[in-house]
Design a protein that fits this description.
Blueprint lengths: L2 E2 L15 E2 L2 E2 L19 H16 L8 H16 L12 H18 L3 E3 L10 E5 L7 H14 L3 E5 L1 H5 L3 H7 L3 E2 L2 H9 L3 E4 L3 H5 L16 H9 L3 E7 L9 E2 L1 H7 L5 E2 L19 E4 L16 H26 L5
Parallel strand pairs: 1-4, 4-12, 5-8, 5-9, 6-7, 6-8
Antiparallel strand pairs: 2-3, 9-12, 10-11
Length: 342
């Protein structure tokens, strides 16, 4: 589905022509030696329409292959009636598999054609059992979480259960959609329950400080909190998979904030980018940066006892290990990627 690549993984401090550091690009040539990347010429609206049709086909899962449009229309009407009547299945956390598949189908054209997303190390996601995905957070709008979920689904054949902040579930429409797509509240109880029952759980410890940081601080990780995610993984005895995401920082470069209006609206920040709010809705189109998502080697926690999760120094050290792994991988990926829009 997406580009997959192994082999060359330069570490931090590597000096190549065309590399990009957290302070910005230093040259124009592609650092990876691959000059075939090209900036998309237009937003993939037509691909989204095709994806929406395919999503409905997948959701209905019959009647389309043999061209039986009458049967298909009847099925669609029946599906709509059942949904309006509330007769559809969701799990104990509110995830609706059909809604999730439709959303993933809508994300694929964006990932493939606009962001040219490359996924590395997907084999590090365990094929079965619980696991905790821990990633850096950036981009003004949490598109990186959605793209990580898509990568886990398509490349590792697992469903990623996202842990979201309280605000996400307080927003009208957004909260309901997030829950139906598989997200749940970022609390210790829900995280541990999901991990113990064999789910792959995703967490972005930087929170709003990560996605709301200025563009001048791109790819510099913020605090990872008190390590609650590490304690949850230790209690459940599941591996922690550090994930490094390059590309999200450039889609909505945050150059300013409107704190007074943000407080009035109950938001953590209200972004100003080079194009928003100046161009209105057009300014909400993400810039076509080149994305790389790399899943690192799992960090095992099953050797610890459950009581070890109550040791603050041990939790701190493991949290710092995860954070440092992600930070150093980000530096390497920036060098490997080169110019963000090439």
């Amino acid at each position: 589905m997406f580009a997959r690549r192994g082999g060359d993984k330069s570490g931090p401090g590597t000096d190549r022509a065309g590399s990009e550091t957290p302070d910005g690009p230093t040259a124009t040539a592609g650092a990876s030696g691959d000059d075939t990347w090209s900036t998309p010429s237009q937003f993939p609206v037509s691909d989204w329409l095709v994806a929406a049709i395919e999503a409905v086909r997948d959701a209905l899962d019959s009647g389309w292959k043999n061209g039986d449009w009458e049967q298909t229309t009847a099925q669609l009407v029946a599906q709509l009636r059942r949904r309006l009547a509330g007769e559809y299945e969701v799990d104990e956390f509110g995830m609706d598999p059909q809604i999730q598949q439709i959303l993933l189908s809508g994300l694929r054209p964006l990932a493939r054609d606009w962001f040219r997303m490359e996924v590395r190390g997907a084999e590090n996601v365990p094929p079965e059992g619980g696991a905790l995905i821990v990633a850096n957070h950036s981009g003004t709008v949490p598109v990186d979480a959605a793209m990580t979920g898509l990568a886990v689904h398509d490349e590792a054949d697992r469903t990623l259960r996202l842990l979201g902040a309280d605000l996400v579930f307080q927003l009208p429409f957004v909260g309901e959609l997030a829950r139906k797509s598989g997200a749940t509240l970022a609390c210790t109880e829900d995280a541990e329950r999901l991990l113990r029952t064999g789910h792959v759980v995703g967490v972005w410890p930087e929170g709003f400080k990560g996605i709301g940081k200025p563009y001048t601080e791109r790819y510099k990780l913020q605090r990872f909190g008190r390590g609650g995610f590490v304690a949850a993984a230790m209690r459940a005895g599941v591996p922690i998979v550090p994930v490094s995401i390059v590309g999200a920082e450039e889609i909505y470069p945050l150059i300013g904030n409107m704190p007074s209006l943000a407080r009035l609206l109950g938001l953590p920040y209200l972004p100003i980018t080079p194009f928003f709010p100046w161009l209105g809705p057009v300014g909400m189109i993400p810039l076509p940066s080149k994305w790389i998502i790399e899943f690192g080697e799992p960090i095992r926690t099953d050797a610890y006892s459950e009581d070890a999760a109550d040791d603050p120094m041990l939790v701190f050290n493991l949290t710092d290990q995860v954070r440092e792994t992600i930070q150093q991988t980000l530096y390497a990926l920036l060098v490997d990627r080169g110019h963000p829009f090439r």
